[in-house]
Amino acid sequence: MSATDTATLPDYAPLPESAVGPTLNEQGYYVGRVERNLYYVTDGTYMSAFLTTSDGVVVLDAPPTLGNNIQRAITTTPTTSARRRCSTRT
Fold first, then answer.
1. Domain segments of the chain: what residues?
2. For the whole model, what pTM was predicted?
3. What is the pLDDT of residue 82?
C-alpha cells in the first residue's frame, strides 16, 4: 500500500461503546450488581468484588487503587444488610 492509499483511512478504529465501561460516580468508582448478593467495584482500570452475607462482607481481590472506595461501595450499597458490620482488616 502506498502513502497515497492511506489518506482515505481513518486515523484510528472507532472505539466500541461496550469498551468504554460504566460512568464513574463523583468519588471515582462504579458499583455494579453481578447477581443477588455479589457486586463488583471498578475505578475504570481495576476491578474488585464483594459478597455480602448475613455474617458480614467478603472482599475479593482488593487492588490498592480502589482503596477506600471499596469500603464506601460496600456501605452505600442499599441491599447490603451486613454493611453496618463492615470494618477494615488487613
1. 22-85
2. 0.67
3. 43
